[in-house]
Amino acid sequence: MMVTRVAVIGIIVENLDSTEQLNAILHRYSGYILGRMGIPYRDKDINVISIAVDAPQDVTNALSGEIGALPGVNAKTAYSHVITKS
Questions:
Q1: Which CATH number fits domain 3-85: 3.30.70.1150, 2.120.10.30, 3.30.379.10, 3.40.50.360?
Q2: Residue 77 near residue 18 (C-beta atoms within 8 A)
Q3: Apex 50 CA angle, 62 and 74, nearest 5
Q4: CA-to-CA separations, 35 to 15, 26, 46, 51, in angstroms, rounded
Q5: Which residues pair with 3 in a beta bridge?
Q6: Does residue 86 have a pLDDT over 90?
Q7: Where does 14-72 show beta strands of DSSP type E?
């Protein structure tokens, strides 16, 4: 049985050179991603991204950890109380 949880990962990209690596990570986890919203903040030369996921908690943790390990990228996760067992 797989248990999934809905979560949102908030991402701040301060080093735009990490964008290609970030997109590759998101592509690898695309099966868990419900939606993505990116906001380029050109005045500050950063990007603000939110990713909604429905995944096992260890997968969400791994995704957030990989993103946060990129140079100049910060990621924080907020979990909902919506848990699905399938």
A1: 3.30.70.1150
A2: no
A3: 60
A4: 23, 11, 20, 6
A5: 85
A6: no
A7: 33-41, 46-55
